[in-house]
Amino acid sequence: MITHERTPASLSLWRTAEAMRFGWREYGASYPPAASFFATVPRGVMQIVFFTVLGEVVAGPGHRQYAFIGGLVLALTTTNTVNVINVPFSDKYFSTFWRIRTGDMPVAAVLYARAAPYLAVGFGLFLVEAAIAAVVLGMSDFAVRVLPWLWIFALMAFGYALLGIASATLTIAKRADVLAPNLLGYLTMLCSGAFLPPGQVGWVDTIGSVLPVRHGLAAVHAALDGRPWLIEALLELTICLVSGVLGVFAVMVQTRRATRHGHDDFA
Questions:
Q1: Which of 93, 135, 180, 244 could form a disulfide with 167 if both were Cys (CB 3.0 to 4.6 A apart)?
Q2: Stretch among 94-103, 150-159, 173-182 having the lowest mean pLDDT
Q3: Rounded to whole angstroms, what are the CA distances from 215 to 9, 15, 177, 207?
Q4: How far, in Å, CA of 267 to CA of 263, rounded?
Q5: Measured between alpha carbons, how far is 120 from 129 in angstroms, rounded to an integer?
Q6: What sign has the CA pseudo-torsion 222, 228, 230, 234?
Q7: DSSP secondary structure letter of residue 82
Q8: pLDDT above 70 as % of the chain
Q9: pLDDT at 98 over 70
């Protein structure tokens, strides 16, 4: 049998694929399919329905569609993609960070590859929630109009997940790893523009402008209204990339700390 040695590029791709495969198995062990579905989907559907009805009651029937889009975004971020922070948590609680830190593959690459299945499953569950909520609310026709812009929702989920991983990784040694992502979730909910339109509270607009979701949400609203949306989408992409860089920085900080102290218990 003739074997061919892998080139460095193919070896990196193989390692990344293996890390993603491990992430899939890790997700399945932490969240069995049936448990994940029934624990997530009903909550996400009720969240979308609740915020849509609330927006209609508070602002009037004319804001029903606006509130529905906001409910979709909040269900996507606070219910679905938040699970990705379990990746750095697992390395802390099972003391496996040293094995990743001493491997050949960059630590950040392992972290993100393992998180990819969490994000993919979360987005799939979100699509199910959105479809059910649209039927319950009688907004199926409007939901069909949203379909071409699902890629912006995916971008928002990606940016939020990356920032969540960064915040959890950076604060894990300070024992604030649970507080930081939750605080991020509440800030995102408040400052995203989902239910508090821009221009109402200055400091909310300022914070929201540098967090994921806000610009993506603005892009979706603009697209559905027939207004220019590209600039807002590019701003969301920029924040997504910055969030990824922050995640790499957080990993570098923890790696250097582990090397300096000679242990990986994050105490």
A1: 180
A2: 173-182
A3: 35, 34, 26, 12
A4: 9
A5: 14
A6: negative
A7: G
A8: 91
A9: yes
Compute, in degrees rounded to 10, the torsion defined by CA atoms 7, 10, 15, 19.
180
pLDDT-above-90 percentage for the chain: 29
Four-CA torsion 240, 241, 244, 250, nearest 10 degrees: -110
Q: Confidence band (pLDDT; 50, 70, 90) for 69?
A: very high
Tell the residue number behind the tokens 């992409």, with chain if given.
237
Residue 147 has pLDDT above 70, yes or no: yes
Alpha carbon distance 195, 237 (integer Å): 22
Query: Could you give the CA distance from residue 108 to residue 252 in angstroms, rounded to a whole number?
Result: 8
The backbone region for 258, taken as left when phi is positive above 0, alpha when psi lies in -120 to 50, beta otherwise, is alpha
* Alpha-carbon gap, residue 126 to 76, rounded angstroms: 6
- Number of Cβ within a 10 Å radius of residue 61: 9
In the predicted model, is pLDDT for residue 148 greater than 80?
A: yes
7 HSE (CA, 13 A, CB side):
2
Angle (CA) 197-47-137 rounded to 5° is: 85
Dihedral sign, CA of 252, 249, 80, 265? positive
- More reliable by pLDDT, 139 or 108: 139
The two tokens of residue 45 are 């559907």
Nearest alpha carbon to residue 27 among 99, 120, 127: 120
- The single residue listed with the structure tokens 């812009």 is 149
Query: Which two three-digit tokens encode residue 214?
Result: 């806000």
Q: What one-letter code names the amino acid at 158?
A: F
Please say if the pLDDT value at position 29 is more than 90.
no
